[in-house]
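Per reviewer request, we include the raw input and output of the structure prediction for the construct analysed in the revised manuscript.
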Amino acid sequence: MVDLTNDASWINKNVQVVTNYLTKEFENFAIGYHADRPLTHTFTVNNEKKLFKLVIGWPTLADRTFTSERINRLLTEAVAQEMRLHGENGYRWTPSEA
């Protein structure tokens, strides 16, 4: 049996790590989050002049092997730069296996 409460706390923890990363990368921007269960997690970064989106598949942040340390790949894979390049169309991030 799946413990949905425990899954929710795991996902919320991972969402918070992503939000913290975006807050550091996009100073003076408002950070928004929308969950489209069971498909995606969408993060928006907006300063009223520019809007950037990051989309992460639902299974990625729900995966118990996807730890905070693995989420730090956001930095090493230059996700913020990719978000800036893709703009309002959004950047869909799938972490590398390396």
